[in-house]
Amino acid sequence: MPRLRPWSPERDAAAVLAAFEASADLHRQAPPIRTLADAREHLAAIAAEALAIDVDGTAVGCVMAGSRDPRHGTAWLSYWLAPSARGRGLAARALDSMSRALFADGLHRLELGARANNPASIAVAERAGYLREGVERERLRYADEQGRDERFDVVRLARLATDPAPDLAPLELA
Ligand SMILES: CC(C)(COP(=O)(O)OP(=O)(O)OC[C@H]1O[C@@H](n2cnc3c(N)ncnc32)[C@H](O)[C@@H]1OP(=O)(O)O)[C@@H](O)C(=O)NCCC(=O)NCCS
């Protein structure tokens, strides 16, 4: 059964390294992870803000709420899945479950951004009840495979505590 649980840098480093080795797109989202030590360091750095998406004891993805601002009741959400865990709706359920927990904690507005050319990520956010609020033109810069810089538009989405909740089965929060 999939569930959400805290990260354990020691235990989860190998699974995270394998996920990053299997997927070039993950390096755009997080700092490059090329060794077990990189994975451990990254997990230790995000442990307070992120949860592992766990399937049968293995971490297959991450959902994170950074930049929490108690003054305004906001946070910035992000997520990823190992390629082997994609295509099953897990990211949307993880994002929805994390969002419900944050609203229960008193946050009011959860925000995220997805590259305009990342339709799967936009679909995940919309499925988890996030609404589009606009496009930030040429917001991000990444190098292409030849090392040339390319700029990307970013679709901004947000979900408010008062927005209708999506009809998704929540993941257990361990
Ligand atoms: C984004 C990510 C988590 C999505 O994983 P996933 O939920 O398993 O994605 P799926 O393959 O099930 O696709 C989600 C939805 O997008 C749709 N989709 C996927 N690729 C698509 C495409 N090229 N065009 C249009 N729709 C697409 C799917 O049909 C699916 O729709 P549905 O929910 O209505 O069935 C995963 O691709 C990932 O980890 N990417 C790298 C990191 C990243 O980009 N994170 C997001 C940044 S915030």
UniProtKB/TrEMBL annotation:
Pfam families on file: Acetyltransf_3
InterPro entries the UniProt entry points to: Acyl_CoA_acyltransferase (IPR016181), GNAT_dom (IPR000182), Ribosomal_N-acetyltransferase (IPR051908)
Entry-linked Gene3D superfamilies: 3.40.630.30
Residue ranges annotated for the N-acetyltransferase domain, each copy included: 2-162
Top-rank taxon: Bacteria
Name of the protein: N-acetyltransferase domain-containing protein
UniProt organism field: Agrococcus citreus
